[in-house]
Design goal:
Layout: H1 3-27, H2 29-38, H3 44-64, H4 68-86, H5 93-115
Helix pairs in contact: 1-3, 2-3, 3-4, 4-5
Length: 122
């Protein structure tokens, strides 16, 4: 398998969690808005709209190789911010795992920002 194919597979795998999460939010907007509000963040409806745009739009853009480095940087920042905002109860093992998962995704996305070249486009 060549590097181009591996790069495409890696982008699609990273993008999958964002696309599924964005679709999940669209399917249950009231629950998502309620969850955002319950965390104490202001403007829950705006947060919902931003989350859907970043997750679904960014996930699809990453999967298809559109503005890959910029999109990966946005998704990495989003992953870190959401980890800190929503998974900050480190005494809860599930929250800790989700925090670390978000950090790991950000790490993978930052690898795309640092090393993605024009040769690995779909």
């Amino acid at each position: 398998m060549n590097n181009n194919t591996i790069s495409i597979i890696g982008r699609v795998l990273l993008a999958t969690i964002f696309v599924f999460s964005g679709i999940g939010k669209i399917m249950a907007p009231a629950a998502t808005i309620g969850y955002i509000a319950s965390s104490g963040l202001p403007f829950a409806t705006l947060g919902f709209a931003i989350a859907v745009a970043v997750e679904l739009g960014g996930g699809l853009a990453l999967a298809f190789g559109f503005q890959t480095r910029i999109v990966a940087a946005i998704l990495a920042a989003f992953s870190i911010v959401t980890a800190l905002a929503f998974h900050n109860n480190l005494a809860d093992q599930n929250q800790l795992i989700n925090l670390l998962k978000n950090f790991a995704m950000a790490g993978g996305l930052l690898q795309i920002v640092a090393f993605y070249g024009n040769k690995a486009k779909a």
